Amino acid sequence: MNELASNPYLDVRQPAQPKGEMTLTCADIAEGSTLSNDYVANIWGYTGSNISPELEWSNAPSDTKSFVLTMYDPDAPTGCGFWHWNVFNIPADATSLKQGVSGKFADGEKELINDAGLKGFVGAFPPKGDKPHRYIFTLYALNDVLDLPETISPAVLGFNLNGKVLAAASLTTYYHW
Fold this sequence. Notes:
Blueprint lengths: L22 E3 L29 E4 L7 E8 L8 E10 L4 E2 L12 E2 L21 E10 L11 H6 L5 E11 L2
Antiparallel strand pairs: 1-2, 2-5, 3-4, 3-7, 4-6, 7-8
């Protein structure tokens, strides 16, 4: 039998009906603003502080069982964008993540390896001279807790959101060098 045919992580379901007006905000990152040096990477010639931002949310559906947070750059010249941060199994009673929390989760939350090959958050680092890149933070309220290992890819995480998303909220920022 084909290994993919028996993979328990590939469980397609009909999408849940998103509901509510959940919001995602950051005190020092406004929608449509340019990221400060705090949220820029400190690898490959970049000298940012590489701090994960403080994020707050409200109006999650009452039947939320967990949250997933992603940070994605759709403008990266890779043909498939670039995943900067993926966290899942954030507790249902959470309403925020503190600044600098990446790498310090302790309540069952799981962080994936980002597309730079590092675990947790990696800040913005578009190619020098490229157009401004979008950095999209998205929070998903789920009707389930995900039974997945931290070794999955962001694509498999996204696939496993099928049928589980109750609500979603995004915050889009920009950066160029």
